[in-house]
Amino acid sequence: MNRRQWISIAGISLVALLAGVLTSQWIYKTSLASDPSIKAFFANPWQTPDGKTVDTAQWQGKVLVVNFWASWCPPCVEEMPALDALQGEFKDQNVLFVGIGIDSPSNIRQFLEMTPVSYPIVIGGLEGSNLSKQMGNSQGALPYTIIINAQGKSTSSKLGKISEEELRKAIKSAL
Questions:
Q1: Which of 158, 156, 103, 94 is nearest to 128 (CA)?
Q2: Per the omega criterion (within 30 degrees of 0), is the bond before 36 cis?
Q3: Across-strand partners of 154?
Q4: Tens-place pLDDT, residues 45-87
Q5: Is the pLDDT of residue 110 over 50?
Q6: Distance between CA atoms of residues 9 and 15, nearest Å
Q7: Can you tell me the distance from the alpha carbon of 99 to that of 81, in angstroms, rounded to the nearest whole number?
Q8: What is the pTM of this model?
Q9: Quick one: residue 136, left, alpha or beta (phi over 0 = left, psi -120 to 50 = alpha)?
């Protein structure tokens, strides 16, 4: 190949790389929860495992770390101690963790007796699973974590077990 052909190949490769990077950023941003799904999240009549209604108005204006989980999901259970530790770390910074249990109330109550956490846990059930899909969890798998900033906008999400460092970074960027 001559020099001109190499320059052409390099130019095409650069354009393809740039298009890939821009497209991946667009896909990442569009997979975030939409305003209507976040409004549906706040409007949902959430209940605690013991049947009490939750006033989601108290959640508004805070950075929320919403974690969809289930007691039968090993990665969900594995990440809970880190979520609990980070709730303690960020509680004075207007950050609130909320666990949405995609499980029966009795299973969640039993699980929380053995593994208590310092943040609110609410019952999601089938509606919670549907809401997680509306909030960007296209596969409907667990665990699924989404960060909502104090203005009510989704800033990041993660399907699968999230590391403490990943979550700390996502929270700090939402503050």
A1: 103
A2: no
A3: 148
A4: 999 999 999 999 999 999 999 999 999 999 999 999 999 999 9
A5: yes
A6: 10
A7: 12
A8: 0.80
A9: left
